[in-house]
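Technical annex, item 7. During the second reporting period the consortium partners agreed on a shared format for inverse folding records so that results from different sites could be compared directly. Each record opens with the tokenized structure and is followed by the designed sequence. A conforming record, contributed by the partner at site C, is shown below for reference.
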């Protein structure tokens, strides 16, 4: 089958066979048993195992699988359906363990569309979990700063809490294509931060124009979740950046809790590629 992916070594089209991706130049990339491939050349890696580790990705999978962030997924699905044609090329850049990728793919198919859907992440642990979640989506270990996709090959690009590479996103999006950029709103997870830090502060909110894109709208998605076990509380904590930069005292306070009500808040910045 034809793939959205391009060879990361020579830039030519990749053909997907049962067990490999191959290009006309003779480069070949194995498909793992979970269904993903590795398109991150060694000279583009900044460490032996870049990106989120298995603990963080497993925590995110466990937490998101309980649909605590379902309002965000529903909003993204509605935007994906309304901003694409009948056979869209869709990329989730920084897809993590694939919760939003799979949800959008399923929503597009339910709407009668035939998407070509791909997800990339620099974390091998994350992509492995994503590939297990949805076999209809192509997943690859790859960097958002060197996306293995052709110029203008994507109709819709999603970036959810992941590093932003405007030049690459602009390159792979077709003229008039849509870019959905998800960031936390000011009070996202405020109650969690109150437990972890003595002096928490709101997240910064800003509207940033990017060259080559025009703003369409900013869609807020607000909610509240109830966590009723230490297991759920810890999963939320471990999937956030706070896990790596919280004082010991805050971690101890959180570990003693069995219930936690938390506000959630997201802003979906919707852009058009010019």
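Designed sequence (site C submission):
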């Amino acid at each position: 089958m034809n793939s959205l992916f391009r060879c990361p070594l020579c830039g030519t089209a990749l053909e997907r066979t049962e067990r490999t991706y191959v290009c006309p130049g003779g480069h070949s990339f194995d498909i793992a048993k979970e269904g993903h491939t590795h398109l991150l050349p060694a000279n583009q890696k900044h460490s032996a195992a870049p990106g989120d580790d298995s603990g963080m990705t497993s925590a995110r999978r466990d937490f998101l699988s309980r649909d605590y962030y379902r309002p965000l997924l529903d909003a993204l699905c509605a935007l994906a359906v309304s901003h694409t044609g009948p056979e869209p090329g869709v990329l989730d850049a920084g897809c993590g363990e694939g919760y939003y990728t799979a949800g959008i793919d399923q929503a597009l198919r339910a709407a009668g569309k035939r998407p070509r859907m791909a997800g990339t992440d620099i974390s091998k642990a994350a992509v492995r979990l994503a590939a297990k979640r949805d076999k209809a989506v192509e997943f690859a270990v790859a960097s958002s700063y060197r996306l293995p996709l052709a110029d203008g090959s994507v109709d819709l690009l999603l970036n959810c809490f992941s590093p932003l590479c405007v030049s690459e996103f602009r390159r792979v999006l077709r003229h008039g294509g849509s870019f959905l950029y998800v960031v936390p709103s000011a009070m996202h997870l405020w109650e969690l931060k109150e437990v972890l830090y003595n002096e928490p502060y709101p997240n910064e909110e800003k509207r940033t124009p990017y060259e080559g894109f025009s703003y369409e709208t900013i869609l807020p998605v607000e909610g509240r979740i109830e966590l009723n076990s230490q297991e759920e509380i810890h999963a939320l904590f471990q999937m956030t950046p706070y896990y790596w930069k919280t004082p010991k005292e805050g971690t101890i306070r959180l570990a003693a809790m069995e219930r936690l009500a938390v506000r959630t808040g997201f802003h979906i910045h919707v852009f058009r590629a010019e």
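The chain has a mean pLDDT of 94. The radius of gyration is 19 Å. All partners now use this format for quarterly exchanges.
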